[in-house]
Amino acid sequence: MKNRIEEFRKQRGITQEELAAALEVSRQTIGSLENGRYNPSILLAFKLSEYFGVSIEEIFIY
Known about the structure:
Helix content is 63%, strand content 6%. It is built from five helices and two strands; from the N terminus they run E-H-H-H-H-H-E. It has helices at residues 5-12, 16-23, 27-34, 42-52, 56-59, and strands spanning 2-3, 60-61. Helix 2 (16-23) crosses helix 3 (27-34).
């Protein structure tokens, strides 16, 4: 599954570390998500959606 996490993160001008801290996950989790090596739990997907103010479907491309 592809995603637009890196795109949304860079639009906000924040680092992987800052996003990880806001979502209470590790920086490695954010890196793995951005590189497509990890699919998030539904809870993390909702947290990302809420953080960026967009729908889950706008972040994740099936």
